[in-house]
Amino acid sequence: MTDMQTPIINYRPTTEADFPIIMEMYSLLNDHFYKTGYRLPRTENVAQAWLDSFQRSLGRFSNSYIAEIDGKVVGFILCRIKRVPLYFGGVLVGELTDMWIVPEARRLGIGDQLVRLAIEWERQQGVHSVEIQVLLENEASWRIFDRMGFKTEFRVARLLWDEYDREVHDSA
Prior knowledge:
By secondary structure, the protein is an alpha+beta fold. The chain is built from five helices and five strands; from the N terminus they run E-H-H-E-E-E-H-E-H-H. It has a single domain, classed as Gcn5-related N-acetyltransferase (GNAT) (Aminopeptidase), CATH 3.40.630.30. Helix 1 packs across helix 2. The longest helix has 17 residues. It is globular.
């Protein structure tokens, strides 16, 4: 891919043959989470655990799309469907859960197109709405979702016990 030409980008559903490359990409995404302040414990064999979490439901309650340039996978997105509790309406809700684009393929509109493919699949499944979780400093993703009309509903924060205990002792 040269800087002078816009590459031809192909999009398609993920197949089993793509699992090894998207697992590598998920490992990079997971590492990125921790570099940017993610505070849950690390998981051994995280990419395999991630794949195991959706592989059996692929095409029914989850779906994944990849982007390719010159036959090389340069990005993926995973989307899932869940039912929210009855006290939240009991409806089916789509989730855009994971997306990674290799650094050299960023700023080509790949994220935008992957998100649109995932949203359209979820729409076809009859979900009520689509939700996302995005790291605070991930401005590129926030811009995509903002352009598409996503509205913030919740903030998520995490308190670790050692921080709580330290705060209790410091204020006593």
